[in-house]
Every structure is written in C-alpha cells, then in structure tokens.
Amino acid sequence: MKVLVLGSGPIIIGQAAEFDYAGTQACRSLKEEGVETILLNSNPATIMTDMDIADVVYIEPMTVATIEKIINQENPDAILPTLGGQTGLNLAMELHKANIYNKYNLKLLGSPIDTIEKAEDREGFKKLMKSIQEPVPNSAVAETIQESKEIALSIGLPVVVRPAYTLGGTGGGMAETLEELEKIAESGIKSSPINQILIEKSLVGWKEIEFEVMRDSNDNCITVCNMENIDPMGVHTGDSIVVAPSQTLTDKEYQMLRSSSLKIIRHLGVEGGCNVQFAIKPNNPDEQSVEDDYYVIEVNPRVSRSSALASKATGYPIARVAAKIAIGKTLDEIDNAITKKTKAVFEPALDYCVVKIPRWPFDKFIYGDRNLGTQMKATGEVMAIDRTFESAFLKAIRGLEITGKSLFWQSEKWTVNNLNKKEFYSPTDERLWALLYAIRKGVDIDYINQITGVDFWFLNAFKSIVDTENSIRESEYNSETLFNYKRKGFSDKMIAELSSKTEEQVRQYRKDHEILPVYKMVDTCAAEFEAVTPYFYSTYETENEALPLNGSKAAVFGSGPIRIGQGIEFDYCSVHAAWALNDINYKSIMINSNPETVSTDFDTSDRLYFEPLDFESVANIIDNENIEEDTKTIVQFGGQTAINLSSQINENNYSILGSPVYSITTASDRGLFENFLKTIDIPNPPGSTASNENEAKKIAKELGYPVLVRPSFVLGGRAMDIAYKENE
To answer: Percentage of the chain surpassing pLDDT 70?
Structure first.
C-alpha cells in the first residue's frame, strides 16, 4: 500500500510544530505496518521532511495542482489529510471538488468527506447536533454582512462570529455592538474558503472543556484525555491556560460530557482522533434560567493542537494510533507503545496534574493589541507536570522564559486604584499576573470570580500560592519548611527572592540537607503496568523512578516554547542531536518543556525529562544522572534558551560538548564581540556598550544620531531598535 500524507505547510499562529510532531509520528507509524509513505509539505524546517521519515518527500506548494502532479508521478493508493491541520482538511475538500479521488481511484483515509463537511460547515454541524439531541448555542449561518446583522438582532447581542473552514479562530471574534459585528463579519466572510460565518449566542463566562477522543472502523471509542480551560468562554482555547485532567467537574458532569463526546464521534464517523469542545454552565445565578447544562461548541475531525497537548499529557501517542486506524487497524490490534504489554483500546489514567500556559509574542511586538478573544494570538505554549495543580502551574510559569516576568512580576501601571475596575481583569496575556496581584492586595476571590468567571477552585489555588509566598517572606526557612515549599512548586530562585537570599545559597542549603527532587514516569496507566518508555517529570517525594542511565550519555537542552525568532528549526536541531548521539553510542537525554514538538515525542531520545529550561531544572537532572557516570551537556542546538544556560552550567563544573563557553559568550555579548573583532582586525560599525540609560545617552551623543540599539544575549532582534533622537 502507498499513502500520500499531507503536511501542514508553514508555521502560522494556530498551526505550529504540533503538526510536524503528528506528521512525523504518522509516517513512522505507517512504515511500521509496511506502508510506503509519500509526504508533501512546503516547510523545510521540519523533521517530517527529512529523508528518513517518509519514503519519498516533496517540498512543494500545498495546492491541488501539486498534489495531482505527485499522484501522476507516484501513483498512491490513498491520501491521509487529517494529520496536516486545517491545511490538510481544506486540501482534502478541494481535491474532492476537483474530482481527484474518483479520477485517480484514490481512497481518502481518516475522516470521510461527509464527516469533514458536517464538522467544518457551520450549518451542517448544527443540523447534525440537533439530529442527535446534542445542545448547541442559538445560532444561524450568514454569508453577507446584512444577514449577520439580522441574525444578531434576532439572537441578541453580544454574539460570537465563527468562520467556516478556518484555523485558530481566524477572522472571527466577539461583537458587542452592530458596528463591531460589521467589521468582524466582513473579516470572517473573507477568511472562510466558502465565505460562510456562524453568528452564535455569546456564552462568555461559561466553563470551557475539551475531550480528545479516538474511534476505529469497528466503532471502538475511547476518550484519551479531558482538559479544562482556566479562562472561561470568550478566550480561544489556544490562548487559555489549560489543565488536565479537569479539576472542577463533578463526576456527573464528567460522565455527561464523556458520553456526549463518544456519541458525537460515532455519528460523525471519524476514524482516528477527534477534538470536541464544550461550554458548561457555570455556578452563576444569571445563568440558572438556561435550560441546557452544556453546549457543544466545536468539533475538529482531525489531529489538532489540543491533540499534541493531550498526547504529551497522557503519554498516549495519538498521531501514531490515528495513522494505524486510518489504514484499517482497530484499537484492540494496536500495541500500546509505552507499556508494550497492553493494547491501544484503553483510556489513560493520570496520577499527576498537567498545566499548559500559552506563549504570546508581545515581548517582541510591544505595541500589539494584547486583548484576548476568540481569535488565537499565541505563537507557542509550555507544558508542565507535577503532583498538584499549584506546583505544575508554577513550573509552567518558569517554562515561559519571558525575561523579567517571574511569578512576582507586576506592571508599573497597576495601582490599588485599578482593582475595582472591570477592565483590570479583562483577558490579556498579562491577566494571570493581574489576578495574582489582586489576590496579593487582598481583593476577595468572590469579587474576582464575579468579574472574570474564573472558577473558585483555581482562584483558591492562586490564593494558596500567595499564602505560601507570605510564609516564605515572613519566616526563616528550615529543612522541613523548605521541603514543603519545594513540594508546592517554588523554585530556588523564587524562594531566594522572597527570603532575601541568592539562588545559589538556597540551592546549596537544599543540597546540604538532601532536599532533592525525584523523578516520576509518565506511563499512561498510573503505574498499573510497567512502562518501557522513559518519560519523566520532577516532584518532591521519596521514590525516584529515573535511575541513572548506564554508559556514555549527554543531555540535549531543547528550545522551550515556540516564539518569534526561535521556532521549530531549533527543535529540528535538537532531535538530530539526539539521533547523532545514538550513532556514536551515547545515550541521549532530552530536556524540554514544549508539548508541540518531535523532541518531546516518546521515542525520540533514550530518556525525556519534561521540565522547564532553567538552571535549577537542568542542574537537578544532570545531578540525578551523574550518580555513576559523568553526563555531558549540549547547549548549541536549543536556540538562545540553551545558550543562556551555558555560563551557569560551566560555572558549576558540568561538562559541555561542542563550542566552549568563552566562544559562546564572546559571540553573544556585544562588548566582547566588538573587542574580539578588533583583535583580529575585522572592521565593524562604530559603537560601544552601555549598562544603564545615562551611559547609552552619552555613547549615542558621541556617535551621532540615528543609532542602532542592540541588546546582548537575545534572539530574533528582540528589543533591537533604531533611535533617531535622545528621547527615543
């Protein structure tokens, strides 16, 4: 059998590295079954376009014309589009309209055309949901701006605009007035390939819940994972903080939504993975008159961004299993690659908590609109795992790698006078810190819940974090209290800042008193069966499940969440570094915090640590591995993230392979680099380094305006700018 796999094309907001992960896993999965794979993708910065992933690779435009040429050249038996995101699904529909499947006698694998139409066409989806008695919000389809206004007036403002066949909420939004609706409707109609938008009753403030489900051709169905958005409806799920498993649902609510998910995937006829999104009624007196307890919001009949998160959160390889289902295998025939003892027809059990926080680009685009809505703005995300929500949440904040934005950050513009204003709590990329600021200032969580809709459970968890901050600040720690602070997720750096000590002092005290993390395995089954895939997270308990690897080994530092200037290309480098280590008989250890990537796949390296890329985390991992053998480190493939760790790694006498720290520092520090160029007689533009504002003004005056301001140790030109006069 020969299958043409469609990739997802260039990285865009809403469609990033998760589809490289999905496509790579799918191609390898199909090859395991003896299927010959042909891959089409236009993005060269991907693992999936490597020659050893698919049998044949075409790096060409993602168009019907290109696909037809490939079909004539390769003569495939089938096409698999459901691992290529919205790009793959839209191409599947275009091929259908161009009669390509009939013309070349091709089978469409995954979701049939009828299923794609039902899920992606807003009117068709609404009709299907009503036919199976699944509640959907009051809505109607519009194809003109005038129609959208008429529908909005009949439903009642505010309304949500959802374009058909789009990704990441592109072109959509929430309209509170007819003037806003006119602009959003025009954008949505243009963004939709079929010029269709859904005008839907706003459910702002309702809880948003997702279920990741799988189905095979024998109608075996399972739920892989359920996830809860901390941000209520009104914020795109890609821009929301997400926790898995859900924390605030009752068992009755969980079972109700699980049953609904399985019913929907069965009636849609999806074969493979599917993502179902729900709104569930909050405990709000204003909403108690609503008859339905929940609404079905959307279904993605394909592997999605949430699928990557669910896969890494549970250890269940969704893309691998979906690819095998697509060629006719059933869940009870597919091995669980994690345990090697069980089959894929099971629902994973989690004995830990997972938190995802989006990574937005506003540190780069400081003048961008920071307000969040139904149109996704995040470029990437970070995932953290620990035993409790609070500790996983604090790990995730560390993993964001936003310079100057620790847990304790607050805007210079915030004052206590802001705290009674609704706008202060509006959804932005900074709302997380705003909520913590409000709690620190004594704002009642009842008031915050009323304004934001964030569930009391999460607000109480945030209050618990603030209470622990106060405990650390108010009393000197001892070995017992320090262990408790570590269990709650506070890093050495956080504790040092609160207790007026240095990070090194906290670290040394902790090591002297043997307050060390242990590592637990992500095994899909909460230790019911022994896992063979070494995939670990840290926690402060007693039993360590990550015994040191034997023999020569090296830890590859990944690149963390995707952001402007540091994207999938560094994941490509990290993966190849791990593979190259194996080629020279070194065990490869991967450290990364990004759930969207191939580097965090269950079988890319000999061992995976899903941890923040800060000094404390990587040093703890190296110490854990160094018990018997010296563990080398590789810092030059993880972008600026890994480079910025090199000095501390070197100062603490850990071994670095490749370029020495002196070379790395010389290239990254503007002053050292300028002096280096002088020593080897290579000219560079006149300039000098400054470490404060007055020095900068003096240098600029000597050089003469305009001047280029270039920070050291940054990526993608962040904070680099041209100043034409002193006040700039």
So the answer is: 98
